[in-house]
Fold this sequence. Notes:
- Helix content is 16%, strand content 34%.
- It is built from ten helices and 39 strands.
- An eight-stranded mixed beta sheet has the order 32-33-35-34-36-37-38-39, with helices on both faces.
- A hairpin with a 4-residue loop joins strand 9 (155-162) and strand 10 (167-174).
- The longest helix is centred in the first third of the chain and has 18 residues, at 54-71.
- It is globular and about 70 Å long.
- The relative contact order is 0.11.
Amino acid sequence: MLKYLFLVLLAPFLSLAGAAAEKYPVSLKGDHVDIYHGQKVADPYRWLEALDSPATQEWVAAQNARTDATLAQIPERAVLKQRLTELWNYPRTGLPFKKAQWYFFTKNNGLQNQSPLFVQAGLAGTSRVLLDPNTLSADGTTALALTAPSPDGRWLGYGLARGGSDWRELRLRDIASGLDAPDIIKWAKFTGLSWTHDSQGFFYSRYPEPTGGDSKVFSKLENRAIYYHRVGTPQSVDQLVFALPEHPTWNFGGTVSPDGRYLVIAISQPGKLGNSIYYLDLLSAQQPQFTGPVVKLIDAFTSSYDFLGNQAGRFYFTTDQAAARGKIVAWPLDGSAPVTVIAESPDVMERARISAGHLVVIYMHDAINRVALFTLDGQPAGEIPLPGLGSVAAISGQFNDPELFIGYSSYLAPGVVLRHDLGTHKTEIYQETKIDFDPTPYEVNQVFFPSKDGTKIPMFLVHKKNLRRDGTAPTWLYGYGGFNISFKPTFAVPPLAWIERGGIYAYVCLRGGGEYGDEWHKAGTKERKQNVFDDYIGAADWLVAQGYTAHKKLVLDGRSNGGLLLGAVVNQRPDLAAAAVPAVGVMDMLRFHKFTVGAGWASDYGNSDTPEGFRYLIAYSPLHTIKAGAAYPAILVTTGEHDDRVFPAHSYKYTATAQALADPTSGPILIHIAANAGHGGSSGTSPVSKTIEDWALRMGFGAHFTGWLLPTRAQP
């Protein structure tokens, strides 16, 4: 058996930037070779995929020790951590939602690791804590990740996430007493809880319990199924409602229709951007039956359909079918042809809901939101006014209730919760969040620049007013570019700590996202993925050409699919920036579909199982395109040891390879593996203390390698 030896050489730095012959933990190269469609591809660090092996655990410890030794010499980290802690310390309340007589909302007093869930009877009632996840773990790593009250208002169905994992443990709590029922459901992932209208139980999606030792939670997930859990019974007797054993990699979930009559099932399959819609007639809302046939309403996988609700024998969907920017259709259950209710418009239809006989539609114009109202037959019924140019995070409401709550924010304001009455058409500020930060000295500008092929790309720049464009401003460039996800003007704390010291925070809206609809998304997928990298490189070069910054003052940031973006970009343009901080990135594009839910990402990436997919993936895969002997910028890779969405070995193998191949005079190439942590920010479950630590780590690293000597406080 191959034995792995580790020699940790932690020599003191004479200079962190540009130090000669950086010393890293030695990662022994194996001789593993895969053959893809007749081509041999070496994978010398395959052994790092065995996460629980002693060899990998020693490697993780050695790499963390090496990184800690460097970071200890970066004073910017402590400065930023202090300021981020101050900025984060503000009271905030989540978007309220209503069920039966109860209003629910989260509230954080500032630095609580997790936000407790509150409940009150009626809008003017006295609130009380219903569930405080901070009491469930000493370090704040157990999060409340899912809430679903029963229709009669007796039960709160909720899901817990532990240690950053995407796995959910489903529980029930009596809302009146605050006591838990004995019901516990395990091995649920990427699921909701959808109650039958008799409030006797709910549908949820789960996988079989993984096998294979301690690393079982990272194994490829297959054979998803929808079950029904009846309150007060053990999980072992939950009723199997829907499964597709002939298609083990397909993904699906079920939602009970607003009238309680139907279970609507949305199904997707790897490699397809569209989905299909099936349904099960429950026959009665108050005495539901699960024995009838599952009806295939839409069975094509060529377009996307998102169920909004049903009325008068018709299902309503948003869809991109023959409408790249979205439309709403009504689909009769009697077999007749679907009817377009709201046609495609020049603006992107981001999402919609039905409330009190209205279609409430969130549109997006150049990544900025507006909210329009229509009747159920598609007649315009006005708009809901928003406070400015920003984004709508969510709208909560009930199908038959005219009351809506709208969460709105912008880059420089944590925002407001608006309350709108669809009956009276009145809008009021229900909750306004205040923060100890004066936005008046700063401005937000939207700019457009041409990408390599001439496509016009939007970018938001946040900085001090009257900025001198002399190329000296340290600039943080964030990008993602994938999975139809739009990046809009949304409030976040970390950019404030950067801009108040004179820096620029730039958000670039790359192809692959959803900012301009389905065609924009598709232009950044599969064999067109290079467009995303060209857009991001174009943003950096444009910022330099326009005098905002210089390449030596630029920091590249992206996480998850954005980590892939950074890995590819620094290989293609090692001279682009002073530093890069790829987080939880997808770095091995030949094997991403072998782990966790990675097979589902083939809709954007394709996969290496096909000759065509192999050809375009190996051309940009960050792990496989590292340039031997190239002078790389300073790179800090970050991941979580419990990241069961993007397998941590992506980051491990990329780091080992880059350390071995890069010019020894490159900026340091380091990795930080967070203990008891998962996918981080995008999972929504990271505790505040860890989030602050992560941002201070990455932002301090970036600031240091731009040569930015940070003042301890904001500059006047």
